[in-house]
Amino acid sequence: MSALVKGRTGEWEVVIGLEVHAQVISNAKLFSGAATDFGAEPNSQVSFVDAAFPGMLPVLNRFCVEQAVKTGLGLDAEINLHSVFDRKNYFYPDLPAGYQISQFSRPVVGKGKVALDMPDGTVREVGITRLHLEQDAGKSLHDQHPSKTYVDFNRAGVALMEIVSEPDLRSAEEAGAYLRKLRSILRYLGTCDANMEEGNLRCDCNVSVRKPGGKLGTRCEIKNVNSIRFVMQAIEYETRRQIEVIEEGGAVVQETRLFDSGKGVTRAMRTKEESHDYRYFPDPDLLPLTLDNEWVAKLRANLPELPDAKKARLMRDYKLSAYDAELLVAEREHADFFEVVAKGRDPKLASSWVTVELFGALNKLGKSIADSPIAAGNLGELIDLIADGTLSGRLAKDVFAEMIAGGKSARAIVAEKGLKQVTDTGAIEAAIDAVLVKEPDKVAEYRAGKEKLLAFLVGQVMKATQGKANPALVNELLKKKLAS
Amino acid sequence: MSLTALTIGQARDRLRRKDFTARELAEAYISAMAAARPLNAFLVETPERALAAAAQSDVRLQKGNALPLDGVPVAVKDLFCTEGVETTAASKILAGFVPPYESTVTANLWRNGALMLGKVNLDEFAMGSATITSARGPTENPWRRKGDNRPLVPGGSSGGSASAVAARAALAATGTDTGGSIRQPASFCGIVGLKPTYGRCSRWGIVAFASSLDQAGPMTRDVRDAAIMLQAMAGHDPKDSTSAPLPVPDFEQAVGQSIKGLRIGIPKEYRLDGMPKEIETLWQRGIDWIKSAGATTVDITLMMTKYALATYYIIAPAEASSNLARYDGVRFGLRVPGETLDAMYENTRGQGFGAEVRRRVLIGTYVLSAGYYDAYYLKAQKVRTLIARDFNEAFKSCDAILTPTAPSAAFAVGEKMDDPIAMYLNDVFTVPVNLAGLPAISVPAGLSADGLPLGLQVIGKAFDEETVLRVAAVLEDAAKFDARPAFVAGSA
Fold first, then answer.
1. Domain spans of chain A?
2. Cα R_g (chain B), whole angstroms
3. In contact, A45 and A275? CB cutoff 8 Å
4. Given B57, B77, B187, B448, the catalytic residue
């Protein structure tokens, strides 16, 4: 699917590749034992290694390598058993050593792929070029003093995975879908929290435009965009900008740009000529990274079920629609919740209660599934009460609202409020009779052939029983009485 | 006999016999250190620390549970970070820097009972072959040419270490050797200098010059002392990823063992055109000594030798340019303010680094730059591999290699100084060893015509310091080198 963009001179195709920097979940930094907690006091999580004191040496954190390899496996990628750490040299106050330890020519993970489920039901495969491990830099604080810049090194040395995609994306929507899918995979694997507001997932966007099928255009790189929404906005703006430049007779200049989220625009930061010469070379303080094939195989064998596999299984085992399954697997916690609810129950009913009612309610409350006032077991109980006829759909919604508000179990609420559905045919028949007496005109019209009026009459009966009557029973009995 | 004339081996035995105390030995060296001030070997003197450690040594010596180096006063090259004691790498950019940590190698020494006399001078960031690039001024060699009182350089970069040990102002010293910085000054000052195999001693806490080449080692009066010191300094350190996870053998035990049947390689490429005759003669004498001790000599070829210097002067500056990027005025050391961030960097690094360091940072930056990387750095890495292969091939037919340590004796302050290339040539015999990561030692083997010490170098297989020490001890015995420098601390 290629979403072409209309310009003044015709249609344009946008070509996008993303470089995602994902912070590795690890208690310690990539090359030092310092802690990595978010939000700690400035410079409270800095070892002498992180601050690049004289004579300090990096020691690779094995766990971070394991996380990177797991991520590679989750991206269906080649794992390079031999990789190398390089130094990327440049001067900046938040880069203590004057170089970042990264991987340049021999990354730990090679080519892989991610499948995107597009809204039209098609699947788009996006290539992964590589994944490598590198250190994060510190943070410059320009707002602490009128003329001075302060530096916080807590983040310096924290492990990042840089995940580079092929230029396979063709629209801001696809870029958004890619990031959501990547985030989902990372969270399933437990290798990155992927919370953009904590800065542990950041994205550089490479954007160019061309005439459909034509030669690749000159690209611009938009650095360090920190939310999926901003990535989409930045790409949309940048696409328009590049088309306008070309249509005005100009040429796109290869450059690095920044996204101003306040104004929704991208701005030039530096041109190719001004770009750094990073002077990459193998870090002589570290040995090449050699992985054992069996170790990788063990990691592969112990990978959790990933979104695509889970989606297929939910569709197969629960007969869910692609749409519902997709909705449920986006977060592992959602799918897990659903599977508890669906266990031994009607999966369609379970899916609808989870994706429509519960997600809707949580959304309104601004809560995540982890903070849901209704536990999966309790939602299951509610569905059981519908299934055994205790609650009508309408009553169930009332009970559900109570559960959201008070956190009580469905049975407790039913007992407390006497909300039990009336299935006593005698009581229902009495109510029907009363309605038939009250609405002689409608009854006559129905009998004359205006069958649509049945719904009205059912409604009246339900109203008379305060919704407690079993609607199916009402339907059945009412039809019988009207026919007699 | 003065206490400062003893070797570690002798002092150790007599301390244990209680002929004198660690405190007496420390006091003798503290006086000697003061007397040697004209040499400008010591940058920092730490007498209180030495005496405090000596008191602890005396307690252990009294109880009869002495540690291997109890009471041994050691001078520390000012490239090793010492906790609470200023460490500058002889650079203005680190003036006033007091590390809150102790290097692994020095910590190992103190754990084994040695005591720190002070920190000694070096070429700035260990970049030099004469200890003249130090921000704290040059160190003098205690030797003088016959009939010539002009001061001579001690070699470098571990010139402070060599000068202090030779002048009897320290019983031993630590050095570091990136391209010959232990062996060449040892040769110039008439002492023993041992560069262990890369990975034998931890680099943690040593101010880095060129990480893939730097290696710490001992500088001592004799071969046995080098073995005793290395024993304490060496060992695997999980904090240094390039440190070898190997057990440390009993090095001292190798000293005095016969070399009968050993095959000693003589590389023809080390016979340089224009090399002084006396170096050639010294080398031949070494060959004769080896033979009369029952070893055989084998002619070997180290074809890539002629490329070693050029290779070294690409790789070492490349690594240095990156290692020294941390001296940026932001977190520690010198900061010279500027109007902009770039101006602050330029002012700090321009004023903080001396000319030789700036030269090497520029060379290193150049050889790693886009468009030059393949032609210089990558090519140099390939040649480095070939140099290592040369040695591996040679070691198929021999057990150790004998060469001169340096192509000349010590030179006068001012000589060779206007031409950096001539200065770099000092390292011609030592540099290939660093590129291959091998162990090598310099042993004083004779005097030049004008009365200056000359060293012979023994190169061994990786992690075979024992054979190196064995052969070196035989050379030492045969050479009977007993000449003393013109300046001996406390003797005048």
1. 5-299, 305-417, 425-483
2. 21
3. no
4. B77
Task: Give the separation between CA A323 and CA B135, rounded to whole angstroms.
Answer: 72
Q: Which residue in A has a C-alpha nearest to residue B368's C-alpha?
A: A279
Omega into A352 within 30° of 0, i.e. cis?
A: no
Q: Hey, what amino acid is at A255?
A: E
Residue ranges and CATH numbers for the domains of chain B are 1-492 (3.90.1300.10)
Q: How high is the mean pLDDT of chain A?
A: 92
In whole angstroms, how far apart are CA A195 and each of A39, A117, A128? 13, 22, 21
What Cα–Cα distance (Å) separates residue B482 from each residue in B164, B171, B289, B445? 17, 16, 17, 10
- If one counts every other C-beta atom within 10 angstroms of the C-beta of residue B249, the result is 17
Judged by DSSP in three states, B365 sits in helix
A141 beta partners:
A150
Rounded (5°) CA angle A186-A188-A192 = 35
Strand order in the sheet with A86-89: A99-102, A86-89, A281-282
Q: How many CA atoms lie within 13 A of A90 on its CB side?
A: 11
d(CA B382, CA A255): 35
The burial class, CB within 10 Å (0-12 / 13-18 / 19+), for A377 is exposed
Amino acid B421: pLDDT: 74
A5 touches chain B (CB under 8 A): no
Name the H helices within A157-196: 172-189
Q: What is the mean pLDDT of residues B413-419?
A: 76
Tens digits of residue pLDDT in B163-206: 999 999 999 999 999 999 999 999 999 999 999 999 999 999 99
Helix (H, G, I), strand (E, B) or coil at B206: strand
Q: Distance between CA B143 and CA B349 in Å, rounded?
A: 35
Write down the pLDDT at residue A172.
96
pLDDT value for A366: 92
Give residue-wise pLDDT tens across range A263-303.
999 999 887 777 789 999 999 999 999 999 999 999 999 99
A48 in reach of chain B (CB within 8 A): yes
**B105 contacts B206 by C-beta, under 8 angstroms:** yes
Residue B255: alpha-carbon gap to chain centroid: 20
The Cβ of residue A147 has, within 10 Å, a number of other Cβ atoms equal to 4
**Between A and B, how many residue pairs show a Cβ–Cβ distance under 8 A?**
96
Which pLDDT score is estimated for B58?
Answer: 98
Residue B300, strand partner residues: B267
- The answer to whether A58 contacts B241, with C-beta atoms less than 8 Å apart, is yes
Stretch (H or E) spanning B264? strand B263-267
ipTM score: 0.96
- Alpha carbon A482 to its chain's center: 53
Task: Determine the angle formed by the axes of helices A471-483 and A425-438, rounding to 10 degrees.
Answer: 60
B365-411 per-position pLDDT tens digit: 999 999 999 999 999 999 999 999 999 999 999 999 999 999 999 99
Task: Give catalytic status of residue B77 as yes or no.
Answer: yes
pLDDT computed for residue A424 by the predictor: 76
Cβ neighbourhood burial of B17 (10 Å; 0-12, 13-18, 19+):
exposed
pLDDT at position A1:
44
Identity of the residue numbered B127: M
Q: Is B379 among the residues known to form the active site?
A: no
Q: How confident is the model at residue B492 (pLDDT cuts 50, 70, 90)?
A: very low
Positions of chain A with pLDDT under 50:
1
Q: Pick the closest to residue B180 from B224, B152, B214 (CA basis).
A: B214
Instruction: Give pLDDT, residue A421.
Output: 67
With CA atoms as reference, report the closest residue to B220 among B36, B478, B432, B444: B444
Predicted confidence at residue A321, as pLDDT, reads 92
CATH number of the domain at A425-483, out of 1.10.10.410, 3.40.50.10610, 3.30.420.40, 1.10.10.10? 1.10.10.410
**Looking at B181, B202, B321, B408, which residue is catalytic?**
B181
